[in-house]
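On clarity, I found the account of how folds are encoded harder to follow than it need be. Since the whole study asks how a given chain folds, the encoding of that fold should be made plain. The format is easy to grasp once an entry is in front of the reader. For illustration, here is how one protein appears when written out as sequence plus structure tokens.
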Amino acid sequence: MRRLLLLRHAKSEHPVGVADHDRPLNPRGQAAAPRMGAYIAEAGLRPDHVLVSSARRTLDTWEGARGPLQGNPGEASGALYEAGAPRILDVVRGAPDSAGTLLVVGHNPGLQDFAVEIIGAGKKGDRKRLAIQFPTAALAVIDFEAASWSEIAWGTGSLERFVRPKDIDPEAGED
């Protein structure tokens, strides 16, 4: 079995004169990232390997989340920045097979499009919520009956859970 964790970057700033790639997290995002890391740790979902978009907001999200996870630095991937669903699939298929659990930290709309296309089963309510909105700092946990990441294909994943920051802390808000 393979387990894929998809974590959308936490809420970011839109400062004037700062390129999209270099946008930082805002205070809400800075609070949400470690909260989601703590959730991942407490739920026993620790990743064996982490792939993070090269954008500052995704790197900052992982930096905040990995503290509670005591995780590795992760691997920055330029291929995940502004990636559509097909490119994300290629990145996932290239993950090391030594990783039973893979975490991908990325962006919308690609992450949501990828999740909707890769999931073929799972909790109906969670699938519906994910299809409607994949908010900042939300986490999708998808299981696959596959011996290798290279075997992952559209419609073969089972959504095990979909967790939004407000599911953990109703005061957290979301976009």
